[in-house]
Amino acid sequence: MTIHEFSVTTADGGRRSLGTYAGRVVLVVNVASKCGFTPQYEGLEALYQKGRDRGLEILGFPCNQFGDQEPGSDAEIQEFCSANYGVTFPVFGKIEVNGPNADPLFTYLRAEAPGGFGPAAGPLYDHIKATRPESLGADEVKWNFTKFLVGRDGTVVRRFESMVTPEQIEAEIDDLLD
Length: 178
Known about the structure:
Layout lengths: L6 E3 L5 E3 L7 E7 L8 H12 L4 E7 L11 H12 L18 H9 L10 H9 L15 E4 L5 E5 L5 H12 L1
Parallel strand pairs: 3-4
Antiparallel strand pairs: 1-2, 3-5, 5-6
Helix pairs in contact: 1-5
Pfam family, one: GSHPx
Keywords: Oxidoreductase, Peroxidase
Protein name: Glutathione peroxidase
């Protein structure tokens, strides 16, 4: 199985097959408008501008499961991304990434790259340990702006937790684009 076998809901309520991105390197990110990591939109857009002609796609998936940090409607989210960060990469319809209503794409991504998350995450680790300790050892997405890097063949290469910035993963993305 690969991400190319999934379809997702677009911001306007339509459906898009991720098979559309076959042959491209994809960075899948759960995003939010009112998060301490929201400024990562700027870095994500910069990565997209640098890499899209070489085969990079960035796919944003708004999620309100972490501290109610994405309360807006799909239309409001689109407006926010465009007006505040000039986002041109696709930002899809709002989804859940954990739990019984998790979008199947994220269930797959989590299983393929469970990720590590420990005390090095600093205050975010402390917050999660205090509020959702059961998620620390699980495959769950821990917070907004978790990133899943996917190769051209649609298989998951690696997971990056929220505090890892787009700039910090640029070299790894470049390696896949070359």
